[in-house]
Design brief:
The chain has 4 domains: about 1-40; about 70-125, no CATH class; about 130-240, no CATH class; about 240-275, no CATH class. Helix content is about 55%, strand content about 15%. It contains 9 helices and 8 strands. Helix 4 (about 130-155) crosses helix 6 and helix 5 crosses helix 6. The longest helix has 29 residues, at about 1-30.
Amino acid sequence: MIKKYNILLLLFLTVSFLFSDVSAQETVKNTPTQEVAEELDIKELILDHLADKYEWHLFTWNEASYTIHLPVILYSKTYGWNVFSSSKLEHVKSLDSHFYIASEGNYAGKIVERDRLDEEVRPLDLSLTKNAASLLISSFLLIVIILSMAKRYKNGSLDGEKGFTGAMEFLINSVTNEVIKPSIGKEYKRFAPYVLTLFFFILFNNLMGLVPFFPGGANVTGNIAVTMVLALFTFIIVNFAGSKHYYKDLFWPDVPVFLKAPFPLMQIIELVGTIT
């Protein structure tokens, strides 16, 4: 079964790269370079795709842009709590609006307001942005998929499954047997649920980010806040689950005494290593 899926996966990737390369070559041959440069700014397009926004652009039809306007939740020291649709936001401050999206400076692309000194300041922003909305959608879909598989496993109805369910089973077994078990050892079952959760969370969000239409296209895992939370949880789990040998190597490693006392050089290096 595993060999079969490996062959199919390799064949799919080979054909995909082959057609993408041919398509790219034909596009370059059939399109004048100067015309492409004038009509399409690749850098601007990529940065616009990666940026987090307060709205979700769906498509453009007959020069009309169709967009989902997400809820904006702000707390200002001057105006208190404010909840409204992002359709009311403008990139230039108007007379009837306290908040607007900054077009330049340190807060470019973020919601700001003017303080008493007429300077741009950031209110407490709890808005549901494009990345946050995509994170909720992908997490919900992932939970539904995993729980449905767990239910079928519990009922013993996954024997000989094919298609998507079989592919998911193949991924779970591959990650467990080829990554988690060799890396962790005999205690792998204790940490397998967490590592598998990380794997599927990152994989699912990356795959959805490649989809060019709603609900895909968001750069969730490219947001430093998401990766920071994943790193923080991993740091906490590793250090709370550490054995006495782990802490011995951390605070009193097997090196010459002058490297760890009276000045704790090795301890500092080990502590920095656990963070980085």
